[in-house]
C-alpha cells in the first residue's frame, strides 16, 4: 500500500474527507453567524440550537408525516427560519439598542431553553435518520472509498456557501446588507426598511444553520444537544476567520475541518484541541482574525 | 428666480420642533418654512443645532416633538425609512460613503423615491470623475470626489427636497466652486434645498434666505437682499 509520511494514503485521504465534511458544517454555521453578526451585531449563541432544530425537524417530519429528505431540505430550514424571524421580531428587537451582552445572554438563554425542552421530549440518546435512497453506497476512487452521501454534503454545502457569498457581494440585496452593516441609520434615511432587513437577515442566518442541520441528520446522531457540541468549535472558527467576514467564515471553516482531519492522522490526541490552538495563535498574531479588517 | 414664477407651495414646514438625545434637549422649538424651489441655509456656530435640525427632519435623533410637514404630510410620527419616500434626499456631514461598496454601488444604493430623478448617464456627465472611478471602493475616492458621490447619490433618487449638511467642509476651493455650480444647476431644475453651511461666502450668493441659529433656536431670518444691512448681526452670531 502506498504511503505518505509513513501513513497509508487510504487512511490519510479518509481523514481528509472526514475533515472536509466537518469543515463543510463549520463553514455553513460560521457563515450564518457572520451574516447575523455583520448586520445585527449580535453574537448568536442560539445558532447551535437552530442547527439542531433543522436536524430534529427533518427526523420528526419524516417519522410523523413521512416527509422525504428532499422536501425536508427546503421545509425544515423554512420552518426554523420563520421561528428565527419571530424571535428577532418579538425578542431581539426589544433589546436592539442595549449593550451587546444582552443579546448574547438572550440567545444563550434561548438555546438552553430550546435544548432543555427538547431533551425532555426526545432524550439524548440520538434519533436515527436513514440516508436517502439515492445516496446509499459509494464509489471506490482507487485510493479511497467515497460514500455518495458524504460527497453530496460537501457539494451542497459549497454551493450554498458560494451562493450566499455571491448574493451578498454581487447583488443589489447584498449591497443593502453590506451598507447596513456599516451604517444602518443612513440606510433608513435613504428610505430602506432596515427593521425588515434585520428580520430577514436573522431569518436567513438561522436558515443556513437549519440547512446544515438537515445535511447532518443522516450522518450524525440527531440529539437535542448536538448543536451545543458543535457551536463552541464554530465560534473558534469565526474568531479565527474574523468576525463578520463572509469569505473568511467559509474558507476558515473548511480549512479548520481539514486541519482537524490531518491532526487525527498524525497526532490523534490533539485532534479535538487543534482548532483552539490555531485560535490562540491567530489571536496573538492577528487579533481581528485572518480575514477581519484591522481595527 | 423671480417671485412671479415661484410657486408658494410649502415643501417643508417645521413648527415648534424640539429634539432630544437621551436626556439632552438639543432643539428648543424650531420654526422654519421652505417653499418649493427655494435654497435656504441654516447658519450658526458649531453646536448651534443646525445638523440636528436636519437629522430631526430625517427622524435620526432620539426623540422629537412638534410638527414637521413634508410635501403637505405630517411626519413627526413617521418611521425613519418613510421620510425619504416623500421626496427627501439627505446628505450627512460625514458624507456616509460606504467602504464595502464601490462607487457605482454607492450611487445605486438609495432607492428611487420619485420618478424624475437623474439617470446614471446624466449623473456621470455632471460628475465625470465618478464615471472614471466607478469601480473603485467608495472610500478610496478623494474627499471632493466622495462629496460629489454623496450628492450624486441622492440626485439619482429623484428627491426634490435636498437636506445638505456641510458639503464644503474641508474641501479645496476648486471643488467648492464646482459644488456651487452644481447647486445652481439644481436650483434651475426647481429642486428645494436646505443647506447647513459654515462657509458663509459659499452660501451667501446661492441662497434665497438664511436662518440664523444659536443654542438650538432660530434667532433671525434674513432675506438674501438684507445681507448687507444685517452684516453686523451676522458677525455677532457667526463670529466671523
UniProtKB/TrEMBL annotation, chain A:
The keyword Transmembrane helix applies. This is LIV-I protein H. It is a multi-pass membrane protein. The keyword Transmembrane applies. Belongs to the binding-protein-dependent transport system permease family. LivHM subfamily. One of its GO terms (molecular function) is transmembrane transporter activity. InterPro entries: ABC_transp_permease, BCAA_transport_permease. The lineage of its organism: Bacteria, Pseudomonadati, Pseudomonadota, Gammaproteobacteria, Oceanospirillales. It comes from the Bacteria. One of its GO terms (biological process) is amino acid transport. One of its GO terms (cellular component) is plasma membrane. The chain crosses the membrane at residues 20-40, 45-63, 69-92, 104-129, 149-168, 189-220, 226-259, 266-285. Keywords: Amino-acid transport, Cell membrane, Membrane, Transmembrane, Transmembrane helix, Transport. CDD domains: TM_PBP1_LivH_like (cd06582). The gene is livH_3. PANTHER family: ABC TRANSPORTER ATP-BINDING PROTEIN, BRANCHED-CHAIN AMINO ACID TRANSPORT SYSTEM PERMEASE PROTEIN LIVH. It is found in: Cell inner membrane.
TrEMBL record, chain B:
Gene3D superfamilies: P-loop containing nucleotide triphosphate hydrolases. GO terms for molecular function: ATP binding; ATP hydrolysis activity; branched-chain amino acid transmembrane transporter activity. Residues 12-240 form the ABC transporter domain. The keyword Transport applies. Signal peptide: none annotated. GO terms for biological process: L-amino acid transport. This is LIV-I protein F.
